[in-house]
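tool_call: predict_structure(chain=1)
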Amino acid sequence: MTEYTMPYFGKLPIENLEDYYDVNIDYDGSEIQIDLNFENETIEISALDKTRNFIENIGNHDKQNRKYILNDYNDKDGDTVKTYLQHHLEAADKEELSRIINFEDTTIKQEQQLLAKLKLIRVGLYPEDEENFAVFDYSIGQDITDYLVVINTDPDGKLDYMAMES
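tool_result:
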């Protein structure tokens, strides 16, 4: 049986794949989940090479996604990030929010303080899907909310779409 060594996942049996694998890794001082999702029991080596390269560059993709998030936030027609932040400022428990933002600080808008707390928590990879190859989930804190800012990209990290999901 042919095996392929994937960062964090170890050896994968490329002719007898399960449909789902996941690992938790330390990333940027926090724990994030990376999951691999397969449609078939077999896969081409080239698809695994592309996936390995993507995993090895998660930091670069996260930086690019943060630009997408800021662009959406600053775009007068953008609605995903502003909606996410405003929803939490209006609906979340103020005591819980006070653990991550300073309501007394008038030098930085509460919305911008909350924006700075948006962190990557999951990367889902779909090696057989060219358009929605990667799904990045961002949250202000899973102990505060089930809502996410979700970014879908192609294998090169190019934005396909961004949405608020729960």
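agent: Strands lie at 3-6, 10-13, 20-27, 30-37, 119-125, 134-139, 148-153, 159-165. Proceeding to next step.
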